[in-house]
Amino acid sequence: MLAIFDRMRVEDDEVREWFRLVLHSQTQDAQSEAKSKRTELTRQASLLTTQQDRLLNMRLAEEIDEQAFARKHTELRDRLASIKLQLDVLDRSNDENAELACKVFELSQTLREQWVEADYHAKRRLLEIVCLNCTLDGASLVPVL
Question: How far apart are CA 138 and CA 142, in angstroms?
Fold first, then answer.
C-alpha cells in the first residue's frame, strides 16, 4: 500500500504547491461562476413570483377569464419549478465538487503518514477511499489511474 500511496504523492514541493494554487484558483473561479448563476436564477425566480402575483390579481379583478389564468399560471409555475431545480443542482454540485477536489489532493499528499499512524478502522477507511477504483489482477491489486 505504501508504494501505491507514494505513486500518488507529488514529490517536488514546487510542483505540489503550484498544483495547490491552481486547484484553489479553479475552485474559486467555479464558486464565483456558480454565485453569479445563482444570483441570476434568483432574480428570474423573483420576477416569476411577481408575475404570478400580478396574474392572480388580474384574475381576482376578473380582467382575465379562468381558462387564460389556468394556462398562464401553469406556465409560470413550471418555469419557476425549473429555476428552483437549477438552483438546487447548482448549490449541490459546484461547491461540493470544488471542495472535494481540494480535499482529495490534500489526502493524496499525506496518505503515507496517515497510514503509518492510523489504527485499524482508519486504515480500513483509507483502503475504501483509495481502492475504490482498483481491480484485482490475479493476486495483485491494480489501481486504475
Answer: 10
